[in-house]
Amino acid sequence: MTERTELASPGRYRLYAAIVFICAVYFVYVGASNPPGLNVSPWVMYVLALTWFAVSARLIEMSRGNPGRGTWVGFICCAGLGVSLASIPFAGHPEACSASTSIGFVSSDFPGGINLCQGVFGAAGFFLITIAIAIAWRWIASRFGNKSAY
Fold it and tell me: Most buried residue, 18, 21, 67, 83, by most Cβ within 10 Å?
């Protein structure tokens, strides 16, 4: 007979949710105060805060039992983090993300003044945005599409 082991108890989910919620509030504070060392636009901090608020809500949902599939939090996290990462090449702060080496045939600079570091973060961001679109597409298809095709 196998025992079902849980990652955390419902009480711990609430504790984790409180910690994540405090981090999200801190992101809002950093975005609103716009400190001089912040190398991103304040709106990026708000998007990151939204993703952390969603994770906190999901943890609370999980602590109450029968949490469902959590597709909505997957969409918010992929979309939010994707937009945040995709903004790095276009943010106008190349000093915040620098690559000092080139790997073989790969140059450290891309067309348009984007360095390797910015290119990698931008590609990861667009990949996450693609995943968010796929999650949304599957949700729309499951709600309004042909049930036999899903």
Answer: 83
